[in-house]
Amino acid sequence: MVSSTVNRYLVAGPCAVESREQVYETARQLHERLAGELSLFRAGVWKPRSRAGAFSGVGEAAFPWLQQIQQEFRLPVCVEVAGASHVESCLQNGITRFWIGARTAVNPFIVQEIADAVRGQQVTVLVKNPAIPDLQLWLGNVERFEKAGVKEVWAVHRGFADSKENILRNAPLWEIPVAFKVARPDLPLLCDPSHISGKKQYIKQIAQIALDYGCDGLMLECHCQPECALSDSEQQLTPEELGELLKSLVFKQPSQNVEDLLRKQRTLIRHIDAQMAQLLARRFSVVQEIAQIKREHNIPLIQPEQWNSVVKNYQQYELKDADYQEFLQNFLNLMHQASLKCQQNTEPSND
Ligand code: PEP
Ligand code: MN
User: Is the shortest distance between the CB of 157 and ligand 1 below 6 Å?
Assistant: First the structure.
């Protein structure tokens, strides 16, 4: 589904379809500048808005304009769907690429209804993260589409709603997309820096961080006249600005040398992990032997001086790195608790 000339996913287009002229002109300029690089042209037809009375999309009137864009520029169009009726309406009008918005994504009933509506259809579904920071819900939404037989499922990180007055519109909480990628390395994960930033000036920084973390592409809002946009006007780039942004970003394409180096280091890490696992198992069996001796000689489980000397013993190996020191402290506390639990659980011997 990704353009054959570039190995990255790029989805761009306006927040919303506003008029034939606006959507056509935006698509035309994007096609002129980025033909061959765009995977999909995005355009909201029904817009979820926080306040009643705000512009909520032109609805079905957009379809003839979007069909023209698909045909004239050979640019597949992607639309937000928030219910089965949206899916049906898109399918009747030749639109087979959808995204699930962050607000819809918090409701498993609606996501299931949409998944049922696409069952048996050849569609592409982009699943944005839910507005609340719930990794399992995001993964679960993806699975609903997979179970409905959808072969092309992509994930989109668009940040998380946050009650604090922050510079960014949505908190990126990078640990969540990273955990998503760890759980589903087989799926393309895109970042939507437009909705994370909320303002043009932060888009580049957010996009670069996402690429540095290893995301597979970007979804960006783009409008031929952002200052006149009826929704999300502060975060939309002109096609020219989008072209400049893409030139300035460093897309990660590891060279063979770097890959070889990483493979060697990862092998080393695997060996270290195996040794640690064996050593920890050995340590636990020694702890059980200690528990046995304490029981036989009526010695209390907790002996603070003994534990302090264990901690001191570790300190001689400390790296002068604050993160490492904090990790070591947490690790030692965890190990102490586990040792105590293990000693409590040790069955009295029958000997
Ligand atoms: C959008 O992409 O225009 C949109 C409404 O996104 P989100 O669901 O991420 O807010
Ligand atoms: Mn938007």
Answer: no
Q: Which atom of ligand 1 is nearest to the CA of 232?
A: 3
Could you tell me the CA-to-CA distances from 350 to 292, 339, 340, 341 in Å, in that order? 11, 22, 21, 21
Backbone angle region of 120, left / alpha / beta, with phi > 0 → left and psi within -120 to 50 → alpha:
left
- Answer with the one of 224, 248, 272 that is the final residue of a domain: 248
Q: Over the stretch 260-318, which tens digit does the pLDDT of each residue have?
A: 888 888 888 988 998 899 899 999 899 889 888 888 898 887 788 888 888 888 777 76
Q: Structurally, how many domains does the chain consist of?
A: 2
One domain, residues 304 and 185: no
Q: Are residues 99 and 168 in the same domain?
A: yes
What domain range includes position 269?
256-345
Please say whether the dihedral angle defined by the alpha carbons of residues 329, 335, 339 and 341, taken in this order, is positive or negative: positive
Please indicate whether residue 278 or residue 88 has the higher confidence score (pLDDT): 88
The CB of 218 under 6 Å from ligand 1? The reply is: no
Among residues 198, 213, 248, the one where a domain terminates is 248
For ligand 1, mutation pick of 17, 127, 158 (most atoms within 8 Å of CB): 158
Residue 44 is assigned to a structural domain of this protein = yes
**Ramachandran assignment for 251, one of left (phi > 0), alpha (psi -120 to 50 degrees), beta (any other):** beta
Q: Which residue has the tokens 């069952």?
A: 119
Closest CA to 155 of 83, 99, 236: 99
The three-class DSSP label of residue 190 is strand
Tell whether 1 is covered by a domain: no
234 lies in some domain? yes
What confidence score (pLDDT) does residue 7 get?
66
Alpha carbons 78 and 116: distance in angstroms, whole number: 19
